[in-house]
Amino acid sequence: MRHGSTSGVVAVLAVLTLTAGTTRVGAQVQADQFTPEYREVRRSYDEKHTPKIEAPDSVKRGQWFDVTVTVGAGSVHPSLQEHFVRYIALYKDGTEIARVYLHPVFSYPKATFTIALDEGGTLRALAEPTHSAAWESSKKITVTR
After folding, report:
1. For residues 92 and 99, is the Cβ–Cβ distance under 8 A?
2. Alpha carbon of residue 141 to chain centroid
3. Tell me: the pLDDT tens digits for 4-20?
4. Other CB atoms within 10 A of residue 145 CB
5. 54 has which bridge partners?
6. Cα dihedral sign for 53, 90, 79, 50?
7. CATH number for the domain formed by residue range(s) 42-144
8. CB–CB of 73/135 below 8 Å?
9. What is the C-alpha to C-alpha distance for residues 131 and 44, in angstroms, rounded to an integer?
10. 71 within 8 A of 110, measured Cβ to Cβ
11. What pTM was computed for the model?
12. How far lies 44's CA from each of 51, 106, 136, in Å?
């Protein structure tokens, strides 16, 4: 491109504009493919999908402690190429505080998070397998001084 020429700049801007518009349309089409049952978090009990939260019932304010989440409250969720847990996320009340992404076959569906809290509330674990919506479980936790 020669110095002072605007035709190259216009072409680049046109490509960027088309690409940005295509991305938005593509994302919307992908989102429309999900059925309502894949969008809604499941809170019922399922032996292989419900996350199991292991954490103390009470902790001291600001003190680090471990929270272990295993997917499958009754038996461990499979970790196969065609069916595995994509991620495990940990929330305190409505705020996500940690997330781990898992790989098929090589990742066991379990994660340990080391956290500290300023106040009590509810810990929530969310786990999303490849063949259904995310599953959720919760555990109340008390924080003392």
Report:
1. no
2. 21
3. 555 544 443 333 333 44
4. 5
5. 68
6. positive
7. 2.60.40.730
8. no
9. 16
10. yes
11. 0.68
12. 11, 28, 8
Can you state the percent helix, strand and coil of the chain, rounding each to 5?
Answer: 20, 40, 40
Q: What angle do CA 71, 99, 128 make, to 5 degrees?
A: 40
**β-sheet bridge partners, residue 138:** 124
The amino acid at residue 111 is A
**Token code pair at residue 19:** 């690409």
Contact yes or no for 114/66 (Cβ under 8 A): yes
The amino acid at 63? Q
- CB 90 within 8 Å of CB 123: yes
Contacts 24+ apart (CB under 8 A), 13-19: none
The total number of residues written for the chain in this structure = 145
Q: What is the mean pLDDT of residues 61-84?
A: 80
Q: Where are the domains of the chain?
A: 7-33, 42-144
- At 74-85, the pLDDT tens digits run 667 556 567 778
List, for residues 87-102, the tens digit of each pLDDT value.
Answer: 999 999 999 999 999 8
